[in-house]
Design brief:
Elements: H1 2-33, E1 35-39, E2 54-58, H2 61-64, E3 72-76, E4 83-87, E5 96-99, E6 102-105, E7 108-110, H3 113-124
Length: 132
């Protein structure tokens, strides 16, 4: 009888270990290929994203889709574990310019409502912007 209980305990322990290993492998695969968490640090993406917000980034677009103007992207920094959260405004072959606080893409004026919001916030805290 004790040999049977010992065998059941070993089988039960093996099942738990197997389940934990499978869960860890699935989590690693999901993080590597599907979703990855990021933390927004700084105010450069205000008012869309705020300092301290947490994001889950859908990673498969780089395998199956196209990036579009206006998409929010994660850019790897030169330093390890440094990432930048930014909005994509230019596509390959585009000419991007800022003149007199106005964004131009390929010579055409582009309305970006968040730019005036950021200007108001900067002026409210006393930041002198160039071109003023």
């Amino acid at each position: 009888m004790t040999e049977e209980k010992s065998t059941k305990k070993k089988n039960s322990l093996f099942e738990w270990v197997k389940a934990i290993i499978i869960a860890v492998l699935l989590a690693l695969l999901i993080r590597a290929f599907l979703f990855e968490p990021y933390l927004v640090e700084g105010t450069s993406m205000d008012p869309t994203l705020h300092d301290g917000e947490r994001l889950f980034v859908y990673k498969t677009v780089k395998y199956v889709g196209e990036f579009k103007r206006g998409d929010i992207v994660i850019i790897d920094g030169d330093e390890k574990n440094v990432h930048y959260v930014k909005r994509l405004i230019g596509l390959p072959g585009d000419t991007v310019q800022m003149k007199d606080d106005t964004l131009y893409i390929n010579g055409k004026k582009v309305s970006e409502p968040y730019l005036s919001e950021n200007r108001k916030e900067a002026e409210a805290v006393g930041v002198k912007l160039t071109g003023d």
